[in-house]
């Protein structure tokens, strides 16, 4: 707690008033839950990826290429918000190892479009299945209304400019 108080009063962390500091403290539990949830949500997938000498950047690329077959490199860069150099390293591995197929766009030969191969689809499905089971388990006892509320909170946390990139809600969930 002393460390937290020191952070609040430190340069760059100064909140101005005791009321503002108390408000920040009121969100600490949610922040910690998000940190731990993210760690555990990605942990099982990380373990699978380690067997392939891959990491989270590979996972994110596989996921979004799979969800958006024919996505261009520039579109993927916009979603992942990583440098072109970092993405090129990830894509080189995925292409060289046969997980991603890259084709030249027939309408614009400068654009490279990406698709998962059968091997890539199998790995992406395996990773997504692990994460889906974790989400299903977490939502199982909450009921549909609470699950939809959770979805709305997550959506609100996404920058407004990126919300249109998230797939629309399914008509019927089975939580």
Description:
The protein is mainly alpha-helical and 175 residues long. The protein has a single domain, classed as Winged helix-like DNA-binding domain superfamily/Winged helix DNA-binding domain (Arc Repressor Mutant, subunit A, Orthogonal Bundle), CATH 1.10.10. 63% of the residues lie in helices and 7% in strands. It has 8 helices and 3 strands, in the order H-H-H-H-E-H-H-E-E-H-H. It has helices at residues 2-9, 18-26, 28-51, 56-67, 73-80, 84-96, 118-139, 144-157, and strands at 71-72, 100-104, 112-116. The chain has a 3-stranded antiparallel sheet. A hairpin with a 7-residue loop joins strand 2 and strand 3. Helix 4 packs across helix 7 (118-139). The longest helix has 24 residues, at 28-51. It is globular. The two termini are 37 Å apart. Residues 1-11 have low confidence and may be disordered.
Helix and strand arrangement:
Layout lengths: L1 H8 L8 H9 L1 H24 L4 H12 L3 E2 H8 L3 H13 L3 E5 L7 E5 L1 H22 L4 H14 L18
Antiparallel strand pairs: 1-3, 2-3
Helix pairs in contact: 3-7, 4-6, 4-7
Which labels suit this protein?
mainly alpha, 3-stranded antiparallel sheet, disordered N terminus, 8 helices, 3 strands, 175 residues, Arc Repressor Mutant, subunit A
First-last Cα distance: 37 Å
- How many domains make up the coordinates? 1
pLDDT average, as an integer? 88
Class computed from helices, strands and strand pairing: mainly alpha
In N-to-C order, the SSE pattern is HHHHEHHEEHH
Report the helical percentage: 55-70%
Question: How many strands?
Answer: 3
Radius of gyration: 20 Å
Q: Which percent range describes the beta-strand content? A: 5-15%
Largest sheet: 3 strands, antiparallel
Number of helices: 8
CATH topology: Arc Repressor Mutant, subunit A
Give the overall form. globular
Q: From the coordinates shown, what is the CATH architecture?
A: Orthogonal Bundle
Q: How would you write the strand order of the largest sheet?
A: 1-3-2
- Uncertain runs are 1-11
The H-level CATH homologous superfamily, spelled out, is: Winged helix-like DNA-binding domain superfamily/Winged helix DNA-binding domain
